[in-house]
Specification:
binds threonylcarbamoyladenylate, DHBP synthase, 31% helix, Rossmann fold, binds magnesium ion, globular
């Protein structure tokens, strides 16, 4: 199959609509990462997404809709704080988990009685979802366990010849996946940290918890149990206090391979005589650059050596979660 990369031109949108209506899969841009979308009402189409990614059958998908789409038939009630959250953050990088009416394919939620819904804000995502006018079930458009894609080229690298169309909306401005928020309880609970932070949510709702799976327990957001976001080269991870050890590790690798550091700008400045990939200086920059640099790192290095950023606050909780999982420092409760 030829994999076309088209912009959201009339031709691109018409072809996307055709594919989705035929039960095929289309990759599309969002403000977080690219998604691999299928008609959420179709069992067959949703199963294609799992098969293409090699995704475990117990890891549910997020349904994406355009901003005027009426989600009421899809959800079975909502808590008192949901409307205020939608008003504050949607369209945008917040996924809300509601009780489900079970109207979409049962494969979307993998047997859970909840449904995760997201209204992405990027103009390309809105144009695509509007053209299709169906709920689109979509995980990130990477092969399972690989680094999430933030350009059309990244999607192409994972799915060339396997899907018909990638709708190119340019580089993703957010860079890490949406915040997944459980909205089925009295107090909203973050299942996956992301660009909408706990502080931002608490400002609207008064309270917001962050879910931490107890060891041995199946996490509420099944995706968090899997090793994830991994570059395809060997990796090592050091804190800032271990910089000397990190340099020794680099020098050892240099004898037979091609090591490279991944660190914030300030640390890159200390490591000028070595190969470095610069994450930037602010939390937003680090979120935006992380996945692109992990993909660049796996192409150019045999060993990618991360130095933990010192920067805290804002979206760093989400960035650190992705970094630690990419470097195998933390990977949930099961593989
Ligand atoms: O930014 C994003 O969210 C991107 C773009 C494409 O929208 N999508 C994305 O999808 O990251 P994915 O499939 O890679 O991650 C979905 C996460 C998983 O951790 C999954 O377990 C969780 O959402 N999830 C989906 N449905 C859920 C549900 N009903 N209850 C709890 N967690 C759910
Ligand atoms: Mg993913």
């Amino acid at each position: 199959m030829e994999t076309k990369i088209l912009t959201c031109s009339r031709e691109g949108l018409a072809l996307a609509k055709h594919y989705i209506e035929e039960g095929d899969v289309v990759a599309f841009h969002t403000e977080t990462v690219y998604g691999l979308g299928a008609n959420a009402f179709s069992d067959e189409a949703v199963l294609k997404v799992f098969a293409l990614k090699g995704r475990p059958a117990d890891n549910p998908l997020i349904v994406h809709v355009h901003k005027e789409y009426d989600i009421t038939p899809l959800i079975d009630g909502e808590p008192h704080y949901a409307a205020a959250l939608r008003k504050a953050f949607l369209p945008g990088p917040l996924t809300m988990v509601y009780p489900s009416t079970g109207k979409v394919s049962r494969y979307v939620s993998c047997g859970l009685d909840t449904l995760a819904i997201r209204v992405p804000s990027s103009p390309a995502a809105q144009a695509f979802l509007k053209a299709v006018n169906l709920p689109v079930a979509a995980p990130s458009a990477n092969l399972s366990k690989h680094v999430s894609p933030v350009t059309a080229r990244h999607v192409f690298d994972d799915f060339n010849g396997k899907i018909g169309l990638i709708l190119d909306g340019g580089a993703c401005s957010g860079g890490i996946e949406s915040t997944v928020l459980d909205c089925t309880g009295e107090i909203p609970q973050i299942l996956r940290e992301g660009l909408v932070t706990r502080e931002m949510i608490a400002e609207v709702t008064g309270q917001c918890n962050v879910y931490r799976a107890k060891s041995g327990e199946r996490p509420k957001s099944p995706g968090m149990a899997y090793k994830h976001y991994s570059p395809r080269c060997r990796t090592a991870y050091f804190t800032r206090g271990e910089l000397e050890k990190a340099v020794a590790c680099y020098q050892e690798e240099e004898k037979s391979g091609a090591p490279c550091f991944l660190c914030e700008s300030e640390v890159c400045a200390l490591l000028q005589e070595y190969q470095t990939l610069d994450l930037g200086g602010t939390p937003e920059e680090m979120a935006r650059r992380l996945y692109a640099l992990l993909r660049q790192g796996e192409r150019q290095a045999t060993l990618l050596i991360a130095i933990e950023p010192q920067e805290k606050g804002g979206v760093m909780a989400g960035v650190m979660n992705r970094m630690k999982r990419a470097f195998g420092v933390e990977h949930g409760t099961e593989e």
